[in-house]
Structure formats: structure tokens, C-alpha cells
Amino acid sequence: MRKKLATIITVCLLSLTPLTLASAQIDSATMIVDGMTCPFCIYGIEKKLKSVDVIKNAEANLRSATVDLTFKENAVINIKDLDKAVDDSGFTPGEIEITASGILEQYKLADKEYSALRVSGSAQIFLLTDSDHHGQEEYIDPGKIKELSETASKNDGDITITGKIHQHSEDLPPALRVESFEPGSD
Amino acid sequence: MKRVVYLLLALTMMAPAFSVQPVFAAPINSNVALPVRKGGLIFRSQMRWLKASDDPTNLNRERDVIAIPNVLLYGATRDLALFAIFPYIFRTLKFPDSETGRRVNQKDNGIGDLSLIARYTVYANDYRSGTFRLAPLFGVKLPTGDNDLRPITTDSFDVQFGLVSTVTWDFGRHEIDADAVYKLNTEADNFDKGDSLTYDLSYQLRVFPWTLPERGLPNFVYLVAEANGFFSKKNELDSTTIGASGGNTIFLSPGLQYSARRFIIESSVQLPVVQDLNGNQVETDFVWTLGFRINII
User: Which residues contact B295 (CB under 8 A, 6 or more apart)?
Assistant: First the structure.
């Protein structure tokens, strides 16, 4: 019942939001990699990540044990590909945090609808969540959706969201756990 | 006849500390259990100069060996790394001729025996600031070396097996490596080189940069301190044990290493602190190593 109510509220709110495309994209992405030690070893991680077809550049930061990722235009992220690249380099992949700009929409699969962020200028979609729950169905609080929609409406529907992404089902796009957001930049 | 004489001579002058190590170390003279990227290819080469001139007899025997072990290292999977080691060796022996008493300066050079080694990571615990790994290794030595370089080279097919461990912490500031590798040597051409055990302990300290920058990955400079041990049993020729062969040597080995993404340059000096050799063998003065590694692909 709660989910249905959330969906209804989301649809209502989104219907009030102008759906204009902006020059938004995945602004930044940072992947945690455990086990990094020295430049000579880390070369292999960067090389493997760069070999993933959607990756434009990968640059490690040892102090934070992370790798900054830059994606090609129109990239659609497959988290499993990124994890495999790190795994093949002999290290352990961790969480990926992204900052992405786009528009809010309802993603439909079969008879279900999910609150989602469509990254402008690409086919990338992130299902939105505000919990650590990695279940088959992503859930986001209606109050949070309202906040997101109001923020998006301040900039013609464009919004920038930061949070960690995760993959749960092959059928569904990756999920984005909303940690912070602001009106999208023009 | 000449070959037999050289063999006996070289045997009595054999410093047990000299052997062509697998040299796929992150440390300079020890092994390491850090990963090789799947599909990655690394080339490593060293120049190792061993000088042995401390003769307990009055024959003033000397031996200089410059070994250049070249290593191709391939990441077959995330856990399996394959190594091919093909050394080139220069050797100079100085000794008095047994008949004339004249000083002989015998120089030989050629390719050493090829070794093929597989290392498999059986345990890896990666954490935010470092890693802990265990990796056994297994290898074979093939009789591909030049005959003039006996007994560094042999006609035998030998096997080696061992265990390597690496722990790093504080985001690459500290690294400790430890390994033990046993070489099971077989008899060939009536010669049986004694089995040997190498055992190493290494500590690396990143001295530059002392504090990592917020972003990016600069090149590193490490101070390296190693203890390298080498124990070998006595050799046998025609089923007769050679008294002046085998023994135990332990080196302390300070070194310096510069690590970038694509290459490493390194150097160390191995100084013997324990030389417990059987018979009247010439003792080692030092082993100086200068090397580099390149991430080819």
C-alpha cells in the first residue's frame, strides 16, 4: 500500500515537472579499490578499468584508496564490468559513488514502476533509493521524492544527484542511493 | 678432461649464496605475493655481480660472476602468475695452475638454465590501506645452460616449490615480504647438485613522498632492508660427496627502489653476515644488484 502511494505521489509530482533535456551527464565517479599498494601495481588496475568500453579514463588516488573514473559520452554503466576489471587486476572492488545530472522519471518494467534518474544525453538510468536495501525492488520515501521533484523544478526539471550505486538484478538498471542533491547546472 | 677440471675447480670455489633467483620480487632479492594483472606482461632484468675472494687457503682463488637474470612475467588469471627466467652469465675464475703454479684467469660466459615458475595466490585479504597475501609457487629448471658454466648450470631437470607471503599497510608506506623456496636438484651427467633452501625476509619503507597527496598517485622511493638466506647440501660427483661444497650463508641487504606506474629501478648490496661453508670454499665478499622492471602491456 505504501509503495503504491509512493508511486502515485511520484507520478503526480513528475507530471508537474517540465521534462527538458539539458547538457547533463555523469559528472564524476569514484570507485573504492581495496588492497592498493604501489604505483607499479596500481598501473594494472588503471589499465584494466580503461579497457572497459565505457571508460574514458581511470586515475587512482592511493590516499583515499579510490579510482576516479571518467566515462565516455552516452556511456551506460554496467557495475559488474567495473567490478570484474578490478577483480582481474588482482584487487578487490568496493562501492562506486557518482554525481550525475539528469531528469526524474518513472521507469517501467512489466507492471512495476520505479522512481528513476535519467541521465541527460545518454541512455543511462539509475533507479532511486534512499536505503541500503539491495532488494529486487528499489524503494524511496515519498517525502524524498517530493524534495527531489521540488529541487528539480527550480531548474527546469534538471537535477544533480550524488550517491553510491549498486546492481541487483540483470533486468533492472543500477540503483542510486540518494545522498545529496541540488538543482542541475545549465 | 678440461670440463671435469673446471667443474671441480668451480665446485671448490662455489659460493652457496649465488644462485639465479626467480627475481619477481617487489623487494629486490626476495619474492613477493602481490598480483599481476590478468593479461598483463612484465619484463624484469637485473645485473647481479657476485665477488668472492676470501680464500681460506693460500691459493688466492677468486671468483667474479655477473648474472643477468631476465624474467618475463605473465598474469594468466587474477591469481595465477607465470614466470620464465632466462639468465645470461659471465664468470671469471682466478687460481694457480696445479702443475705450473702460474696464475690462471679463466673467463666464461653464456646462457644459464631456463626456469619456468607458476605462482598461485591462495589467500588474499584486501583492506582499505593495504593487503595480506599468501602464494605458493612451483617451478622447474631445464638444462638449457652453457656447458662452460658448470656448476652454475647443470644437465639436470630440477624442481622448486615454496611459499611467499606479503603484507602491506598504511597505504603503501610499509611492506613486509617473506618467502621460503626449496630446490630439489636431481642427478645428471654423474653430477648431483645438493638441494637448497632460500629464505628471505624483507621490509620496505616508503620515504618519498612521506605524506601522500590528497589526489593522484606520485612516484615512490622506498628504502629496502632484506635478510637473504641460502642453505645448500653438499654436491656429489660420481656418487662421491664433495666435502668443499654446500653450507649456509645469510646476507643483510640494504637497498633503494624507485617505483613509477610503468617501471621500477632498484639497487641493493648484499653483505654476508653468516658464512658457514663446508670445506675450504672461497667466501663471498658481496653481491651488488642493479635492476629494472617494466609494465609492457
Answer: A40, A43, A44, A47, B40, B41, B42, B261, B262, B263
Q: Give the ipTM of the model, two decimals please.
A: 0.85
Helix (H) or strand (E) holding B247: strand B247-259
Torsion of CA B190, B191, B195, B199, to 10 degrees: -160
Mutate one of B28, B36, B37, B263 to test the A interface: name it (highest A CB count within 10 A): B37
Q: Which residue segments constitute the domains of chain A, with CATH numbers given?
A: 2-24+100-183 (no CATH), 27-97 (3.30.70.100)
Contacts of B173 (CB under 8 A, 6+ apart): B205, B206
Higher pLDDT, B17 or A186: A186
Residue A14 has pLDDT above 50, yes or no: no
Q: Which range among A6-20, A171-185, B269-283 has the greatest average pLDDT?
A: B269-283
pLDDT score of A6 more than 70? no
State how far Cα A181 lies from the chain centre. 12
Grid cell of B278 as nine digits = 663446508
How far is the C-alpha of B218 from the C-alpha of A29, rounded, in Å? 21
Q: Do residues B293 and B261 lie in contact, with contact meaning Cβ atoms separated by under 8 Å?
A: no
* H or E element that contains A119: strand A112-119
Q: Which domains can be identified in chain B, with CATH numbers? A: 2-295 (2.40.160.40)
Kindly list the residues from chain B whose CB atom is less than 8 angstroms away from the CB atom of residue A62.
171-172, 212, 217
CB half-sphere exposure, B277, CA atoms < 13 A: 25
d(CA B211, CA B223): 15
**Is the CB of A35 less than 8 angstroms away from the CB of B126?**
yes
pLDDT along chain B (297 residues), means of 10: 49 44 58 90 93 90 92 95 94 88 91 95 96 96 91 92 96 94 93 92 96 94 95 91 91 96 95 94 93 93
Determine the distance from the C-alpha atom of residue A48 to the mean position of all C-alpha atoms in its chain, rounded to a whole number: 21
Return the C-alpha cell found at B40: 598483463
A44 touches chain B (CB under 8 A): yes
Across the interface, whether the CB atoms of B214 and A46 are under 8 A apart is answered: no
